[in-house]
Structure prediction request, 266 residues.
Amino acid sequence: MTKNADIPLLDFRNITVIKDGRIVLDDISLFVGADENIAIIGPNGSGKSSLIKVMTREYYPVADVPGLRMDIMGEEMWNIFDLQKQLGIITTDLQNTCLRDSTVFEIVISGYFSSIGIYDNFFDVAIEMKAMANEILKFLGIHHLKHQKMTKISSGEARKALIARVLVHDPKALVLDEPTNSLDMKAIDQFRKTVSSVAKAGKNIILVTHDLSDIIPEIKRVILIKDGKIFADGKKEDILTTETLTALFDIPVTVQKSGEYYAAFC
Prediction:
């Protein structure tokens, strides 16, 4: 993989994806710089999840399109396992999969093996891997939970454990898909602070959401998607307006700002 720090995280051009005879992404072009943190916002069915699946190579675009490009970190061709290590994906579905009798530490360590839990392999894990996992748990403030079962901790704590699980690979970016679904207000606040800490530590953040309050201060750019197309793209303060969000969601929306955070109300 190319290591040049100036190479963009994403360079997508003319991406069209068709699924079940329907266009789910329509001539999408998206450039994300090496140090950019972005939020992608759109209604249900707008194409947000499809765009993530293009990033993770679950979806491939129509091939015979002039100017087509889908580079990630300067590379067009990827071994899917190497790509997964560089793009740490956090989803509610992953959390549901990890809710089992494995401990937090086992779930984090299993990130090295792309498994869910490590079972009999636990004692074969390298000392360096265990040391890294412990450091990450301390960084995220959940080291005291390492021996707790995933089924016994809160949803917010489990979400932090998933972040620890992807951080063991020292990824370039975290891709967060609707990250605060099912979290209560306290857990949402804690999760935001955790993601801010990760961003400050030098990881790119790609946040996919429909909730403006998920957008941490370190995210300066917002992309809006509607009907499979880029609806708007620009600085956070220019994009997150009452007029623009009303047009995006096709209902009256009021946008308010409190400190460095935004919220939308119908």
Q: What stands out?
A: The mean pLDDT is 89.
